[in-house]
Design a protein that fits this description.
Elements lengths: L3 E4 L9 H10 L5 E6 L11 H10 L5 E6 L5 H10 L3 E4 L7 H10 L3 E6 L17 E5 L14 H14 L5 E5 L7 H6 L4 E4 L1 H4 L4 H10 L6
Parallel strand pairs: 1-8, 2-3, 3-4, 4-5, 5-6, 6-7, 7-8
Helix pairs in contact: 2-3, 3-4
């Protein structure tokens, strides 16, 4: 399975968001990570479907990974993101009373469905969802804000997750989000991750292309 680099626009310059996304895609990003916060599930409030739709209108081939951090997750909200044009949607299963129905809604729309596990949640929580997801997102920080430091205990958690997914003979991707940088991306890849969310590590640098190439070099796939 190929490695995917997914810059998180939470660290981008929101005053120039369209330009930022266009630049980072031209720099070699595979997917744009789109953090949705509702000020209830997490303290911060970010962006919603209209912003996603505007980005897709500007860049029609854009692949967007929507990470929903919202309380009382609803089928309607998910459908709004699907209509806006996303390629991936991940949910925190504890944020809704109907996680299986929501995951089915996502997949029926030909969008990839994922669940998210926070650092204090056991990896075994993914087990009931194996047949309903295309990817598992392991948080390497607690969700709610960007720029946090990578939690080292994530590495054995990724190994456990990869072993669990492989034992089910699945093709489920393993995504990791939080504090990812050139210093640890190789380590988390060795532990089994294949999709990497990086915010400040990319948008906090002057040359996105050089940064993404450096990240890939740590994975053994520099271009």
């Amino acid at each position: 399975m190929s490695y995917l680099i997914a810059p998180s626009i939470l660290a981008a310059d929101f005053a120039r968001l369209g330009e930022e996304v266009e630049t980072v895609i031209e720099a070699g990003a595979d997917v744009i990570h789109f953090d949705v916060m509702d000020s209830h599930y997490v303290p911060n409030l970010t962006i919603g479907p209209p912003v996603l739709e505007a980005l897709i209108n500007r860049l029609p081939s854009l692949s967007v990974d929507v990470h929903l951090m919202v309380q009382h997750e609803s089928d309607t909200l998910v459908r709004n993101f699907i209509s806006a044009g996303c390629s991936y949607i991940s949910i925190h299963p504890e944020s809704t009373t109907v996680p299986f129905e929501i995951l089915e809604t996502i997949r029926k729309a030909d969008v990839k469905a994922g669940i998210v596990l926070n650092p204090d949640e056991p990896i075994s929580n993914v087990d009931p969802f194996i047949d309903y997801i295309d990817y598992l997102l392991i948080m390497s920080v607690f969700p709610g804000r960007g720029g946090q430091k990578f939690i080292p205990e994530t590495v054995p958690r990724l190994r456990e997750a990869r072993n669990l997914l492989d034992s089910k003979s699945t093709q489920i991707r393993l995504e990791v989000d939080g504090g990812i940088s050139a210093q640890n991306i190789g380590l988390v890849a060795e532990a089994g991750a294949d999709m990497f969310v990086a915010g400040t590590a990319i948008f906090g640098t002057p040359d996105y292309s050089q940064t993404i190439q450096h990240l890939r070099s740590q994975l053994g796939c520099a271009t």
